[in-house]
Design a protein that fits this description.
The complex is a heterodimer of chains A (about 160) and B (about 100). Chain A has helices at about 1-20, 25-45, 50-75, 85-90, 90-110, 125-135, 140-160. With about 160 residues, chain A is an all-alpha fold. Chain A folds into 2 domains: about 1-80, NADH-ubiquinone/plastoquinone oxidoreductase chain 6, subunit NuoJ (Four Helix Bundle (Hemerythrin (Met), subunit A), Up-down Bundle), CATH 1.20.120; about 125-165. The radius of gyration of chain A is 21 Å and the shape is extended. Chain B has a single domain (about 1-90), classed as Orthogonal Bundle (Helix Hairpins), CATH 1.10.287. The chains are: A mainly alpha (about 160), B mainly alpha (about 100).
Chain lengths: ~160, ~100
């Protein structure tokens, strides 16, 4: 059952990513495809026992980040986009080599596997366990994050402002 | 399950990289970068489940914060670019290209 759900959401995620990648005419539709990918990934996080991360994925990515994207797309009233094949011609063999490398790595990984997953406590990935880890072992990283968000906020206001007095 | 999640993560990362390299619309390139960050998050969550260690979840939270900050600044740049050039095509902004 869980495997079936995983395949279902994985198919949704890949379809959403392809929809974003191949849709050259409509940027709004591309952003909405990205929402599908984000929500499917949130469901996959829940299947992997990462409950808090799954909720945050849907809240932050699907709820906030993609909405900002949509806002900017609609604000700018964009024309259609194109791929640029002539710029990529020189890198064709490099990309083929990298693709083959990734496929070989996956084919080596998948049949052998990583062994059985570790035994986890009942509240693994819940808000209590993640919150305890965040505010004990990783509290410095958490505090530095606030500085990063402040810098991003000031930077975004300065960049988008029409004129700086 | 963990192995399949890692495979899905690799697939999504490749799709994101493809978008970032082939599309010329700055907004779609930013979306592709978000997709790549999400693929990395999926790998972190999967390995976190595999080893039963919550550090991966904390790392995912940090990546989400960095992604949000990146989108705020990146779209600010896109807006000021559009105000000056009437375009979000990266081919139109190649002053710094060697």
């Amino acid at each position: 059952m869980i495997d079936l759900l995983f395949y279902l959401f994985a198919a949704f995620a890949v379809a959403g990513a392809l929809g974003m990648l191949l849709n050259v005419r409509n940027t709004v539709a591309a952003a909405l495809s990205l929402v599908g990918t984000m929500v499917s990934l949130g469901a996959i996080y829940v299947l992997l026992d990462a409950y808090l991360i799954g909720v945050l994925q849907i809240l932050v990515y699907a709820g906030a980040i993609v909405v900002v994207f949509l806002f900017v797309v609609m604000l700018l009233n964009l024309r259609q986009d194109t791929f640029s094949p002539e710029r990529l011609r020189g890198t064709k063999w490099l990309s083929v080599a990298i693709g083959v490398l990734v496929c070989v790595a996956l084919l080596l990984l998948l049949p052998r596997g990583l062994g059985p997953a570790a035994e986890i406590p009942a509240d693994f990935g819940g808000y209590r366990a993640v919150g305890t880890a965040l505010f004990t072992d990783w509290v410095l990283a958490f505090e530095v994050t606030s500085l990063l968000l402040l810098a991003a906020m000031v930077g975004a206001v300065i960049l988008a402002k029409r004129s700086i007095d | 399950m963990v192995e399949k999640a890692v495979a899905l993560s690799a697939l999504l990362f490749v799709l994101g990289a493809l978008g970032a390299l082939t599309r010329r619309n700055l907004i779609v390139m930013l979306m592709s970068i978000e997709l790549m960050l999400n693929a990395v998050n999926l790998a972190l969550v999967a390995f976190s489940r595999q080893w039963g260690d919550l550090s991966g979840h904390i790392f995912v939270l940090m990546v989400i914060v960095v992604a949000a900050a990146e989108v705020a600044v990146g779209l600010g740049i896109v807006i000021s670019l559009f105000r000056n050039r009437e375009s979000v095509n990266v081919e139109d902004v190649s002053l710094l290209k060697w």
